[in-house]
Design brief:
The chain has 169 residues and is mainly alpha-helical. The chain has helices at residues 2-33, 41-56, 59-70, 74-98, 102-110, 115-168. The two termini are 22 Å apart.
């Protein structure tokens, strides 16, 4: 029972860490992908294209690639989940940042406010409710999947234990 509990804690830790890392990276890369933050179209297109490619590759493939690169362990799981989740958040957050009216940004530009200050004091607070909604949407489809995987692994463990017990008896 202790093994099951520690495995459950490790699974939850992997999910939470990948979510937190992806949230931070998604905001940073979403800032680069949004057309209205830096107003450099080439940077926006390159960032969006790169993350579109990352989103096109399924999460299990990223986890397997990270297993090859990082070896067995929770680090590979966190890194593999982060790749796809960061790509999802980058696209979602960029759309949220782009939904801020141009008049708001232009008014701050006229006063001489820096791009970073405009982002942290106007764009990010205005998009915060959308960011929270995107995180909720992500959790609504990732938690059921993770729980199914955990229960499937748990069932396989019990089946293996049952087979071993019958073999020994």
């Amino acid at each position: 029972m202790d093994l099951i509990f520690s495995s459950l804690i490790e699974t939850i830790s992997i999910a939470v860490l990948s979510l937190l890392y992806s949230l931070i990276l998604g905001i940073l890369f979403g800032m680069l992908a949004a057309r209205n933050v830096f107003r450099v179209p080439v940077l926006s297109v390159i960032t969006q294209s790169f993350f579109t490619f990352l989103r096109a590759v399924p999460t299990p493939v990223w986890v397997l690639l990270m297993l090859v690169c990082l070896g067995m362990g929770p680090e590979a799981g966190v890194a593999g989940l982060c790749v796809h989740t960061t790509a999802f958040f980058t696209k979602s957050f960029a759309q949220s940042f782009e939904s801020i009216p141009d008049e708001t940004i232009e008014a701050l530009e006229v006063t001489g406010t820096s791009r970073l200050s405009i982002f942290t004091n106007a764009i990010l607070p205005a998009a915060l409710s959308q960011i929270v909604a995107w995180v909720g949407i992500y959790l609504s489809f990732s938690l059921p999947t993770a729980s199914k995987e955990f229960l499937s692994g748990l069932r396989k463990s019990f089946d293996s234990f049952h087979l071993l017990a019958h073999t020994l008896i």
